[in-house]
Design a protein that fits this description.
213 residues, mainly alpha, Tetracycline Repressor, domain 2, 10 helices, 0% strand
């Protein structure tokens, strides 16, 4: 019984430590994303991030070894957030047009979060040019997920698409451009944008209904 209690206390301690580390990591990424969005990736330093958080540089190095690690974690978080939200909102038995509608709304809602979304769009190519395996695998996984919905829509006669790959890149390009101009102070919420973009993009690829004679 004593050993069980000691084990439980040990596990509680580990969980509390992991929770603190997770919270601190999120704080670091949030501050880093703001600096990346406001002053640029090149001008941002780990010293600036540590100072903003009231941390010593050695304390910051406990979580990240270099600035590239911060950017990599930030991009991984954004892509994973989009995937998680899309998979949560999409049911397997939904028709492809509804799946794509939910995916577009999930993508817009996730990527319009400031400052993470803007940093993601501004510096995605910087990190991908270094061919970080984890980022590439996560990106490819998401693209394959979107592509599978487009293919299903074509096969079921819902989507009029001649080139699925071209449509995939055009779709993601349109969505990923939003954080370059979107402002949280504007009249449109991410949810409103998601609805509008879903309507516009789906209308462009849906097979028109047959004409009545």
């Amino acid at each position: 019984m004593m050993q069980e209690r000691e084990q439980q206390e040990l596990e509680k301690g580990v969980n509390r430590r992991e929770l603190r580390m997770s919270r601190r990591r999120k704080e670091i990424l949030k501050v880093a994303a703001r600096f990346f969005a406001e002053v640029g990736y090149e001008r941002t330093t780990l010293e600036m991030i540590a100072s903003e958080l009231g941390l010593s540089q050695p304390a910051l190095y406990y979580y990240v070894a270099k600035k590239e690690d911060v950017l990599a974690q930030l991009l991984e978080d954004i892509i994973q957030r989009i995937i998680d939200r899309a998979q949560k909102d999409i049911a397997p038995d939904m028709p492809p047009d509804q799946q794509l509608r939910q995916l577009i709304k999930a993508h817009v809602s996730s990527i319009c979060q400031y400052p993470e979304g803007k940093a993601f769009i501004l510096y995605e190519s910087h990190l991908l040019s270094q061919r970080t395996p984890e980022i590439l695998q996560l990106r490819d996984r998401y693209q394959q997920f979107v592509e599978s919905i487009l293919i299903a829509g074509v096969e079921q006669g819902m989507f009029h698409i001649e080139d699925v790959k071209l449509t995939l890149f055009a779709l993601l390009g349109a969505l990923n451009w939003i954080p370059r101009w979107y402002s949280t102070e504007g009249r449109l919420t991410p949810e409103m944008l998601g609805d509008s973009y879903a309507e516009m993009l789906l209308n462009g690829m849906m097979v028109p209904p047959p004409l009545n004679n």
